[in-house]
Amino acid sequence: MKKSMKKILAVVLALTVVLACFAACGKNDGGETDNVIKIGSIGPLTGDNAVYGTAVRNGAELAVKEINAAGGINGMQIEFKMEDDVCDAEKSVNAYNNLIDWGMDILVGTVTTGACLAVAKKTAADNIFQLTPSASGDDVVSSDNCFQVCFTNSNQGSASADYIADNALAKKVAVIYDSSSDYSAGIYNSFKAEAAVKGLEIVAAEAFTADSKTDFTSQLSKAKNAGAELVFLPIYAAEAASILKQANDMGFKTQFFGCDGLDGMLDIDGFDGKLAEGTMLLTPFAKNASDDTTKKFVAAYEAAGYADDELNQFAADAYDAIYIIKAAAEKAGVTKEMSASEICDALKGAMTQISVDGVTGSAMSWKATGEVNKGPKAVKIVNGAYSAME
Questions:
Q1: Contacts 24+ apart (CB under 8 A), 334-337
Q2: How far apart, in whole angstroms, are the C-alpha atoms of residue 256 and residue 240?
Q3: 279 Cβ neighbours under 8 A, 6+ residues apart
Q4: Which among 29, 54, 334, 378 is least buried, having the fewest CB atoms inside 10 angstroms?
């Protein structure tokens, strides 16, 4: 054999060995060689609900940085990437497909219920583990691969009715809700059922839709004329801010009570926070709480340079979500050699065996159905800040 041919064969053999080494160095089908686990997320980073998605991104990023600095998960560093869905189900599915192409192992998301319901069908079919920080629809966890950090809609609705009744806040209650939103309609339905059990009278139940969410004078007038002592708002912050302003303009002085969707209302541009004085809501996080866990999280969040108006329950939920994944992955012994489907199977079993002390709850645990076990908290807006209620 000629020397030139021997050299060519030697080069080919060397390249073959190198390529084989690269192929053996990681679990990624895309040829990735780093010892990483890829966590994707989906939520609104632009549009009317961007405050929620941005907060989730910030909280998740903060946890990722902390965990990576401490050695990662089972020796693996976390790579985190978030896609914008503008709170739209179709765009959320497109975002999910982008993350799959990226090589995602685990999904934190999506942020809102409607989008999450669409994506959950995809993760179930692909057997991708999904932990949503804030999508509270009951059907979100209909498949065994999906878990929640937040309460389900039914839990929020029934807990709200219980709190109002048990603390004698009102007997006659009006509800203003978004019938086009899975989140809002789901909470309303469970609130209605529990209100009947607790002896609360719903004197007005007024709906609006995504196409008619600027003028609420009709709904407020009906609530006022019906003698409502309290108005329950199972809606998002932007619409709640408009309702409070219009109620003030028409001289309707009453109590307002909402759920976690109201979190972030005080930070809406142009909203006069004084209009929210006395508003109550169920939320797992209050940034001015005095417990050590909250103070540590708030200090780290502010030190990271994130905007203060994005420091809300959604950021705290996402922060906890990353640490929950870490706990489950360590319990399950997840390794870099495992495929995303194998990781999913391992995490599904581990989630029912772990207990996590987080910012949004202590001793959090999970049912096999995906629902979280933790106690609800109620806060009241006093002097422009959240104040814990007993």
A1: 334/37, 334/73, 334/74, 334/76, 335/74, 335/76, 336/26, 336/27, 336/35, 336/36, 336/37, 336/76, 337/27
A2: 9
A3: 244, 255, 256, 257, 258, 262, 265, 380, 381
A4: 29
Residue 390 banded pLDDT, cuts 50, 70, 90:
low
Please tell me what DSSP assigns to residue 152: P
In this structure, the chain runs to a length of 390
Cα–Cα dist 168/163, whole Å? 8
Domains of the chain: 36-151+292-373 (3.40.50.2300), 154-283 (3.40.50.2300)
Beta bridge partners of 84: 43
Question: Residue 388 CA to chain centroid, in angstroms?
Answer: 21
* Residue range 324-364, pLDDT digits in tens: 999 999 999 999 999 999 999 999 999 999 999 999 999 99
pTM over 0.90: no
Q: What gap in Å lies between CA 69 and CA 193, rounded to an integer?
A: 47
Distance CA 108, CA 320 (A): 11
CA distance 49 to 240: 13
Helix and strand counts by DSSP (H, E) for the chain: 11, 14
Residue 114: closest CA among 161, 63, 52, 157: 52
Distance (Å, rounded) from C-alpha 89 to C-alpha 112?
9
Rounded Cα gap, residues 170 and 166, in angstroms: 10
d(CA 23, CA 37): 17
Q: What are the tens digits of pLDDT across the range 162-198?
A: 999 999 999 999 999 999 998 899 999 999 999 999 9
H or E element at residue 283? none
**H/E element holding 39?**
strand 36-43
Q: Which residues of 332-361 are buried (b: 16+ CB within 10 A; e: fewer)?
A: bebbbebebebbbbbbbebbeebebebbbb
**Closest residue by Cα to residue 231 from 160, 137, 323, 314:** 160
Tokens 């994506």 — which residue? 119
- Of 327, 288, 307, 386, the closest CA to residue 58 belongs to 307
